[in-house]
Amino acid sequence: MTTVDNPQAPRKPLKPATAAHTALAILFVMNLLNYTDRSVLNAVLPLVKDEWMLSDKMLGILNSAFIITYMVFSPIFGWLGDRVVRKWIAVGGIVVWSIMTAASGLARNFAQLFGLRMLFGTGEAGFSTVAPTMIADLYPSTARSRVLAVFYVAIPVGYALGYIIGGAIGGRYGWRAVFPAVGIPSLLLVLPMLLVREPQRGQSEDVTAEELGEYLKTQAPLKNYLNLIRNGSYVCDSAAMILMTFVTGAFAWWGPTYFNRLRGLDLDKANYYFGIATLLAGITGTFFGGWLADVLQKRIKSAYFLVSGVGMLLGVPALLVVMLIDIPQVYWPCVFFAEFCLFLNTGPANAIILNVTSPNMRAGAFALNIFLIHALGDVISPYIVGAVSDATNLHVALVTIMPLITVAGGVAYLLGMRYLERDMERALQEMKTKPRV
């Protein structure tokens, strides 16, 4: 008897089909453009600094402009994403961030660029909040670390493209030419996003047809979002991601400038080599971490946390070598390995959020995570590093801050291991429990 004939019959999660893989591919491309547009400013920081005679602290504030609106609007789009068609939120976000990126090339002073970067953040908040929850409804929990690794490998690839494109165009035509060069293609490529079908919430979960039908009639009350503070997996994961985002945000923002200023590399070469290291480490680390976590999860129920935590801790020695040994043949491989270790957690850490929350509140849970990791992570880390750099120098700022924060992030991931199996089962049971009227 089929599930349709008997709605109470056990229903296997919907198997990924060609449509799911196509949607994943389109979301990946848009996320790639997202991070390319985000990172091009990093590549031309020295040019902006020289033209407007800015301090390192002011350069750090430029990064905060984008992140502030990104984190403030994420909860708003998260609340909407749990209640309306998510695809249109994503499309609107793409249009806004693309236009604001292209327009950034018209900025004639610090205040104008600051304002445009703030508007840019609102667009990114819409897309980044709802896209992962759409992926969660296309793939079962046992595959989410791998598919999210595909989606999030756009982070290092996009950053690398931003460094390479920004360095090449900025060095030849000036920093303003960089922004329309990446913003306009993002706007044109929004068309494929219109072809993505909105997946049914919860369609990939292991519940009966009746249970899913009853569940979809409900909306998560506000108290469910507040109860996330009691979700040990969510709390540990978010804490670790805050620390990880602090480190990666500071490294991404100051990396090319560090090698330009302290290692004497030309800006285009610093961007190129740093971009290549980020590209290779991001692709291999993200894919390997996603694959390894899913494989180990079959044997170790807390493998998502284990892979994430061990990865961060393994990256600490490499970070120290990068900053303490001035030999290119040594520090460039260590840049690669440090970033490889940091990127290992990308797939499993984001999969944890989706697997320990129920489908009708995932966008909100993701939005809250975005708010926290940026408010306490890369909003403040470029500024803090810049302030310490102004007081001492950039080398002292990075070597005293980044290794310690990385160790703390690894420990936070490992502390979450005790909660994961329990919280995943609780999220599934919420879908199977008939709501009280």
Automatic annotation (TrEMBL):
CDD domains referenced in this protein's UniProt entry, alphabetically: MFS_spinster_like
Chain segments annotated as coiled-coil in the UniProt record: none
Keywords: Membrane, Transmembrane, Transmembrane helix, Transport
Segments traversing the membrane: 18-36, 61-81, 88-107, 113-135, 147-165, 177-196, 234-254, 274-296, 303-324, 330-354, 366-388, 394-416
Membrane-protein topology: Multi-pass membrane protein
Main localisation: membrane
Designated name of the protein: MFS transporter
Species for this entry: Candidatus Abyssobacteria bacterium SURF_17
